[in-house]
Amino acid sequence: MKNIIKLLLTAALVMGLSEILPGIETTNYLSAVLVALSLSVLNFIVKPILVILTLPITILTLGVFLLVINVLIIYLADWFVAGFKVSSFFWALIFSVLLAFARSFLFKILDKSNT
Questions:
Q1: 14, 16, 24, 115 — which has fewest CB within 10 A?
Q2: Which domain holds residue 38?
Q3: Other CB atoms closer than 10 Å to residue 54's CB: what's the count?
Q4: How far apart are CA 48 and CA 29, in angstroms?
Q5: 60-67 CB contacts, 8 Å cutoff, 24+ apart
Q6: Percent helix, strand and coil across the chain, each rounded to 5?
Q7: Are 24 and 85 in contact (CB under 8 A)?
Q8: Span 35-63, mean pLDDT?
Q9: 30 vs 41: CA distance, rounded Å
Q10: How many domains does the chain have?
């Protein structure tokens, strides 16, 4: 049940950020749910592989390259979900950073309320 709530919170964040950021477009709430689902799957399957493959450059850049990996994950979600559009690298970077901060904040509140 907690995972479904987290998925719906992420979808609401995707929808809200697409309203705020001009370079991100989401057509409806169903596509926002699909984006949240695809981001979850991509972060679970693809991201660890990319992190391992790019470990030398990540160490060389002191972890800053992980932001590029997050942008690639956002672009993959853009490619998979028809109702989601990212216009540029810059907007994908801003979107991924804001989404990560907001999810971290909301999930911490959710975890505290369940204890």
A1: 115
A2: 2-113
A3: 17
A4: 28
A5: 67/93, 67/96, 67/97
A6: 80, 5, 15
A7: yes
A8: 95
A9: 17
A10: 1
